[in-house]
Design brief:
The structure holds 2 protein chains of 2 kinds. Chain A is an alpha/beta fold. Chain A has helices at residues 13-23, 37-47, 63-72, 91-94, 108-116; strands at 4-9, 28-34, 51-55, 76-81, 99-102. Chain A has a 5-stranded parallel beta sheet with strand order 2-1-3-4-5, sandwiched between helices. Classes of the chains: A alpha/beta, B alpha+beta. Chain B: Residues 481-571 form the Histidine kinase/HSP90-like ATPase domain.
Chain lengths: 118, 572
């Protein structure tokens, strides 16, 4: 299976580092990261990633709000958060994201599973 | 005073008989004179009883008795005829003084006193000169010979014929000047008193003058009937005059009922404007203002100066709190000091009540606002703590967990035994995260902030093990404190239904209409819930009341429980 280019969007540098270490490998190639919603919009145009791992809570906007623009730019979006899926109810589905992974359960396998589940 | 009136009436009957007994007497005029005299007498008595300290009533009775006495000259009895000659113009000076002193009963200025003095002196002189020098018996055989007659002096008589009307003319003009000046200087109250009197005096004076004038000139055809018409009209005006004085006295001096009514109305706390309107209307003084003492002069509620007109007086109002309130009013009102005092005291009290009521209302509003602020502050704090947990503790724990998992994976490839130890760390971290999540969720639901009320309540309901009918409408976003209150009403209602009610079905409704949001939670359980027993319910009650809303609990035994909150909302 082809390696998918991944953009990590999260304002916490410690999380970006560990996520990069966790996810960069056979399944995903981390093309870059962004700390804000607006940076994410710029990077998604510049780097053309196949997948964006998007934190729900960003300093300048929310993941739900920026998600549709990232999808229009051609990326599949998977939301992530310290909180659980139930904390966001129907909002994940409504914003067009492929799915949600709580940060505690983040792994390349889980991300692949979410992306490949239709 | 009753005796004076009774004596006057008897005297009037007597002189009317004398006047009627004269051959060829005019029955119409005799009757009208009798009626006029009696009306003055009775009106005077009534005016006196209305206001015993006011001289107006007495003066009216004076006019009546003087008026009757004038007819005594028609008597065939010598002493009565002589008395009649002496009092030939007795009613006029009383009438002049009455008109000058109305409605206070006092002659206020020097010109007024001089004018009245001239009227009395003129009347006395006229009477005396006629008694001494005019022999009426020589002209009218039925009249007696005057006891004081010195000689029938034609020269004196012809001087009298000029001097007497001339004096009357000047006194009348003086009287008119005084009354018209008083009219011009006064406002509503005095004018409404003066209007009928002034109208009748001017009309009477006019008709009398035209009558005299028509008699003096022979070129006017049929002059006697013309004279009769005008003189009779004058008699009618004169007969009505006492009623004008009496109505003025009744109108001016408020009756006990009117005062009591006014005092009763002043018992309620009232705005300054309302008090002003009430007093102005009740006391018939459209110049009346409620003001507050200041330097240099009184000011109104807004601080604008309240001018004091020359005809006005300032009376302090009792007990008005921090500001000294005063009444600026027509000086005429001081004629009735007891009424003014009572009204001022009551108005002062009403003002004090009003300022107290305003203070209480302001305090109540402040308490409400502060209660709302307290609830909002508590909510804000809960939301802040939930956010902090998310931003710091939970984020760090998650990152730590992921790092541990990363290391675990690497170690697992090397078959290191430490990997098992790290699995324990990973489990502990996961458990801690779960506990913190429960704590954070209870503090403030993240979904409420992110998704709004219907989404958050929908999610809450979805987690329940029972079927729930929901009617959550499409709702706009409300202020955070309103959304929080509505959310916690639902959460607490559902918790109670599950814990205590043994319910099998639940219903949650939220409806937004106009400026209210109505939240209903109902179950089919055993009922019997009470605010007092559940601290959760009491907390909800406080929370809803703090927002100015209303929470009702309907929970009959075995009849299910319905909690309904009505919250005032501003949509955002």
């Amino acid at each position: 299976m082809a390696t998918r280019r991944l953009l990590i969007v999260d304002d916490d540098p410690a999380f970006r580092t560990v996520a990069r270490a966790l996810l960069d490998g056979e399944a995903f190639q981390v093309a870059g990261d962004a700390a804000t919603g607006s940076a994410a919009l710029a990077e998604v145009v510049r780097l053309r990633p196949a997948v964006v791992l998007l934190d729900v809570q960003l300093p300048d906007t929310s993941g739900f709000e920026v998600c549709p623009a990232l999808i229009r730019a051609g990326a599949a979006v998977v939301l992530t958060s310290v909180r659980e899926a139930a904390d966001y109810g129907p909002l994940v589905e409504r914003c067009g994201a492929r799915g949600f992974i709580p940060k505690r359960a983040l792994s390349a396998e889980e991300l692949t599973r979410v992306l490949d589940t239709v | 005073m009753g005796a004076l009136a009774l004596g006057g009436a008897a005297f009037g009957v007597q002189t009317t008989f004398i006047a009627a007994g004269v051959p060829n007497s005019d029955a119409f005029r005799v009757t009208l004179h009798a009626v006029a005299g009696m009306l003055f007498l009775v009106s005077g008595l009534l005016a006196h009883y209305r206001r015993p300290t006011n001289r107006v009533g007495l003066l009216m009775m004076g006019v009546a008795i003087g008026f009757f006495a004038e007819d005594l000259q028609l008597s065939g009895v010598a002493w009565a005829h002589t008395l009649g000659q002496l009092t030939v113009a007795a009613s006029s000076p009383f009438l002049v003084q009455l008109a000058l002193a109305f409605p206070t009963g006092r002659l206020e200025t020097r010109p007024q006193r001089i004018l009245a003095g001239v009227a009395y002196a003129g009347a006395a002189a006229t009477g005396l000169i006629i008694a001494l020098f005019v022999d009426q018996h020589a002209r009218f055989a039925e009249n007696a010979v005057g006891l004081l007659l010195i000689s029938d002096n034609v020269a004196v008589e012809s001087v009298m014929k000029v001097a007497s009307p001339l004096t009357a003319f000047f006194v009348s003009v003086g009287l008119m000047v005084v009354l018209i000046r008083r009219w011009l200087r006064s406002r509503q109250l005095m004018r409404s008193l003066l209007a009928p009197v002034l109208t009748l005096l001017i009309a009477g004076g006019l008709f009398s003058s035209i009558g005299q004038f028509s008699q003096s000139f022979s070129f006017i055809e049929d002059r006697f009937s013309l004279y009769d018409t005008f003189i009779r009209s004058y008699d009618v005006f004169f007969a009505i005059l006492p009623l004008a004085f009496l109505s003025g006295m009744i109108y001016f001096y408020l009756g006990r009922g009117a005062v009591n009514r006014l005092l009763r109305q002043l018992r309620e706390p009232k705005e300054v404007g309302e008090i002003e309107e009430l007093l102005s209307h009740s006391l018939r003084d459209d110049s009346l203002r409620v003001a507050f003492t200041a330097d240099p002069g009184p000011v109104d509620e807004q601080g604008a100066p309240v001018p004091i007109a020359p005809f006005q007086t300032v009376t302090p109002l009792g007990g008005s709190g921090h500001r000294q309130a005063v009444l600026v009013h027509d000086s005429l009102l001081t004629e009735d000091p007891r009424v003014l005092e009572a009204v001022a005291a009551a108005a002062g009290l009403a003002l004090a009540n009003q300022s107290l009521a305003a203070q209480v209302a302001a305090q109540l509003a402040e308490v409400r606002a502060s209660r709302a602020r307290i609830v909002k502050a508590a909510d804000d704090e809960r939301r802040r703590i939930e956010q902090n947990l998310h931003d710091s503790a939970q984020s760090r724990l998650v990152t730590a967990l992921l790092n541990v998992n990363l290391v675990r994976r690497t170690l697992a490839r090397q078959d290191a035994r430490e990997a098992d130890l790290l699995a324990l760390v990973s489990e502990a971290l996961t458990a801690s995260l779960a506990e913190i999540r429960v704590l954070a969720q209870g503090l403030y639901p993240a979904l409420l902030t992110a998704g709004g009320l219907s989404i958050a309540v929908d999610e809450l309901v979805a987690q329940l093990p029972l079927p729930v009918d929901t009617d959550l409408g499409p709702l706009p976003r409300f202020a955070p404190e309103v959304e929080a209150a509505a959310y916690f009403v639902v959460a607490e209602g559902l918790t109670n239904a599950l814990k205590h009610a043994q319910a099998t079905r639940l219903r949650v409704g939220m409806r937004h209409a106009g400026a209210t949001l109505t939240v209903t939670v109902a179950d089919d359980g055993r009922g019997g819930a009470d605010h007092a027993t559940g601290s959760g319910l009491q907390g909800l009650l406080d929370r809803v009341a703090a927002l100015g809303g209303d929470l009702t609990l309907h929970s009959p035994a075995q009849g299910g429980t319905t909690i309904k909150a009505v919250l005032p909302v501003d949509t955002r």
